Amino acid sequence: MAARKKLDFMVIGLGRFGSSVARTLSEQGFDVLAIDINEELVQDLSPMVTHAVQADATDEEVLRSLGAGNFDVAVVAIGDNLQANILATLILKEIGVPCVVAKAKNLLHGKILDRVGADRVVFPERDMGIRLALNLTSASLQDFLEVTPNFSIHEVIAKKKWWGKSLAELEFRTRYGVNIVALMRGELVNPLPQAEDVIKEGDILVIIGKNEDLEKLER
After folding, report:
1. Average pLDDT, stretch 35-60?
2. Among 3.40.50.150, 3.30.70.1450, 3.40.50.1820, 2.120.10.90, what is the CATH number of 127-218?
């Protein structure tokens, strides 16, 4: 079997969100080209990524000269300049980048990005707000990841009533319509939990399902 190609990433806009994305991708071993029009931001991030360049991402010739068409994924993280954000997204798709992920400020902005060709639109401020609210109101919820507007992955601290029982006994899928995709115990992670695995105090369950079903489970 042929080895899977490692993805190459381009991150445009090195504010808090963009720089965090670029650093994390780099830490995961991916090649990252980071771009911003602000030289200071570029210099700050330069030691942490494969390449960091000061450039105007709204200039098609500049992006072509940087080999934008050779990247697998481009993340447009420009925050304050919505025109630049939209234009960069449009140019990247026209150049032929297979996957363009664009940061949106609000729903209207997101709709525009979708119409100009963004493959995925993200709302960092909204999603962080949802995450904080859920963490504040649910004693068992550790973290969550929205897969679609109606479907999420939650990390849930094992409830006392689950302790000492196997996944088969708890019947998560039958009772709640959710699936357990991983079981975390301290530093150990079991990515393929079996029906006979027993839940212990302090365990964290990684659960995937519809939001309404996950909410019922966490009550």
Report:
1. 96
2. 3.30.70.1450
